[in-house]
Amino acid sequence: MHIELEQRKAPSRAMQALAPVGAVLATMLTGALIFTALGYDGFGAVKQIFYEPLTSAYRWQDLGVKSAPLILIALGLAVGFRANVWNIGGEGQYVIGALAGTGIALATWGLQGWWILPLMCIAGIAGGAAYAAIAAWLKTRFNVNEILSSLMLTYVAVQVLFYLMRGPWKDPQGFNFPQTRMFTDSQILPAVIPGSVVHLGIPIAFLVALAMWFIMSKSLFGFQIRVVGAAPAAARYGGFSSRNTIWAAMLVGGGFAGFAGIVEAAGPFGQMTPQFPAGYGFTAIIVAFLGRLHPIGIVLAGLVLAVSYVGGELAQSNIGLPKSATGVFQAMMLFFLLAADVLVKYRVRISAKAGAA
Amino acid sequence: MARDTVNRIELVNVSKSFPGVLANDQVSLVVKPGEIHALLGENGAGKSTLVKMIYGIMQPDAGRITWEGQPVTIANPKAARRMGIGMVFQHFSLFEAMTVLENIALGLDAKRSQSQLEQQVRDVLLAYGLNLDPHRTVSTLSVGERQRIEIVRALLLRPKLLIMDEPTSVLTPQEVELLFATLKQLARTGCPILYISHKLQEVRELCEAATILRGGKVVAHCDPRSETPKSMAELMIGSSLLQISKVAKGKPGDVRFAVDNLSLSGTGDFGVSLEGVSFAVRAGEIFGIAGVAGNGQNELSLALNGETPVSNPSAIMLDGKPVGTFGTTARRAAGLCAVPEERNGHGAVADFSLTDNTVLTARDRQGFVSGGIINHTAASAFATAVINAFTVKATGSDALAGSLSGGNLQKFIMGREMLQKPGVLVVSQPTWGVDAGAATAIHQSLVDLAKGGTAIIVISQDLDELLSICDRLAVINEGRLSRDLKTGKANIDEIGLLMGGVHGEHGAHAH
User: Fold this and answer.
1) What domains are there in chain A, each with its CATH number?
2) In this structure, how many other beta carbons lie within 10 angstroms of the beta carbon of residue A237?
3) B387 and B315 co-located in one domain
4) Taking Cα atoms as reference points, which of B178, B9, B143 lies closest to residue B85?
5) Which of A133, A219, B463, B497 is paired with A273 by a 20 to 30 Å CA distance?
């Protein structure tokens, strides 16, 4: 038997749109089978992870809280991915952004005023962007692969966090726990719905997605990003510098991740702790691709991944699934999506005849 | 020999389809021993698909192939070579850093010892009077010499059929003569040659039979010796060919574009450096730059259009203004538009709509952008205007550039630049891989644009094209530009010698 992949003339739009849905369904089915084979209630686990989180209003709040950082980071990373700039260090930029904002919070501790929170956000954006700038500079100055530099810088960022928590920024009244003071009311994102956990960062994430949709589809900047990614030589001919584009893509990716960091620190956390890096920066890569690098798709994909986070926690407490199960499901989604994309571009031809030796 | 009366290869009603296209529709072809048989057709007529099936790269969906009277299935190129089918591709597969002999050894199926192989190579070179040093490194060879490696590689197998795909597109006129002598000698030994080309004058000189394809079907057989290039072109395109009308010029206008002592060091291991290139083009003039591929044309076209700005501002003067340091955007603003050689991925983005492809280069001159936001309606209107003015076959301005045929995309790109009414237009390979009908339309529009006062620079390897549309031309060789020649008086031999440059063939004088 002879199997070959044959390129389709033009990938169908419907198939492109449905590939992420197919990937999620395939993840559910495979996950159920794997965990059944491991001796768990596999189908129960899938129900816990993908369905239970949708069943109560309280959990919907949780979905919002989890999806906001994922969406924000993914929106920024998607700009880079569109331009073939592979910023894999969203996690590090997220941590540094949060630390920069926290720095403002600690410096203004005890003060009051409407300006403190915006200042923290600006510091968060600037911190994330500055951290991504290191990888951008290495890339444009020395042609260092940004995948490696941005990824390695993530581990540096986490060590910076650990150092600050255990040393200079440790809460003086914190019984020697490695964490900062709690932020004050002027430093915490207000709840949008009083009495809920839905903080201001959540509607902001959705609004940013809308703004990015407009920018990417209507503006010359969005055009530049798309051209550089689709055809670098055509971009040069059209007068778009690849160097500027690398800088722009890295700064936007870092800035968004940094903003997500301070939103998370000044939102659900309300302080900075060593437990802050939860892998959102990495999961956001899955969100970006599952959302087809399209801002609106990213919002939907962010919600799906948020479901898997919330559901993963439910499955831990309700049916004793290990914590890493969530990661397994998330990673499967990415792999199935990549596989589905191959099938969108190519058709499989199976012929009985073998080529003569 | 009795066998020589049997057809060497015969294809009967061979069909092959790809998703969305019927590339070959019941094609039949007969090649007799010892004949040089031309396979003619426009781009996309199905010539490549047909020879790929003969060489075993693809399998026909229907029909049969007989080889010396026996039905055969040619499973893969190795099987084809074992049967005695050799092929010389348009694009060579050679390792630049290795010697001629090493390259030949790598391409052979059966292993032979170094000395044995060298002897065989020398025998072939001697038998065909070919000039090639087996120990030279490929990167130091001219294109004609490189092609000879591929030919020797094929001849070592004692072929019973040789397929040549567009072999002369990269050769100087002298190199073409040498190649034809070799091919004729080979044919006299009884080996037929299937010769794919779109250069009809050459086909007339060389071939004694021709099969003409159009839209995947055989539309005619003819004897090229009793046809004219025009009559064959009309068979290829299925309609009559327009003549380019060139009006008599008044006296030339002012100098609009001047290049003065432009030098640029080449990038990469095999990049070509430009050395002291100088020329000037007046309003209304078409200036040609001829040359064999890889002699600095790419570097020159990038330096002229601004993709590689140079450090000396006055090395390039546009309407009296120094623009050497300007990038593409600033040069466009100053009035210089350009069409690069490669359509897909350079002149246009295949995955983008035609509208988006106008934004790529026309956004400033046509005012598509205000406040950083693209005016899609204006861009779409301009794309539609280009489609209409240049009769581009497309479903509309929303069609993806990649869905257009090569000729139509080229017409679109040329139209996009010309409708911006540039003061200076730099065009590389305007009709590369474009069918005869579209090529005539493109040539006519260049002549018309020049009439309006634009200074046009055409960089092309197609000498016939340059001779038919240019007022003056110069030859580029190893990054140096020759003095310019008036096309009216230019003598093909002289141009050919200039094209050969220091690579000039000693063998050329042997005739």
Assistant:
1) 2-351 (1.10.3470)
2) 26
3) no
4) B9
5) A133
Is pTM beyond 0.90? Reply is no
> For chain A, how are helix, strand and coil distributed in percent, rounded to 5?
70, 5, 25
Instruction: Report the C-alpha gap between A212 and A215 in whole angstroms.
Output: 5
Q: Is B166 left (phi over 0), alpha (psi -120 to 50) or beta?
A: left
Q: How many residues make up chain B in this entry?
A: 511
Assembly ipTM: 0.85
pLDDT digits (tens, 9 = 90+) for B85-117: 999 887 778 888 889 999 888 878 777 788 889
Question: Is B75 within 8 Å of A356 when comparing Cβ atoms?
Answer: yes
Together in a domain, B72 and B17: yes
CA nearest to B329 within chain A: A239
Q: 3-class DSSP state for residue B199?
A: coil
How far is it, in rounded angstroms, from Cα B94 to Cα B138? 8
Subunit contact A218:B18, Cβ cutoff 8 A:
no
Distance CA A270, CA A276 (A): 11
**Which residues is A349 bridged to in the sheet?**
A4
Q: Domain of B453?
A: 243-335+422-511
CA B42 to each of CA A228, A251, B228: distance values in angstroms, whole numbers, following the listed order: 33, 49, 17
Same structural domain, B266 and B315: yes
**3-class secondary-structure state, position A39:** coil
Q: For residue range A322-355, what is the model confidence (pLDDT) as tens digits?
A: 888 888 999 999 999 999 988 888 888 877 654 4
Most A-contacting residue of B16, B305, B349, B377 (CB-CB within 10 A), to test interface: B349
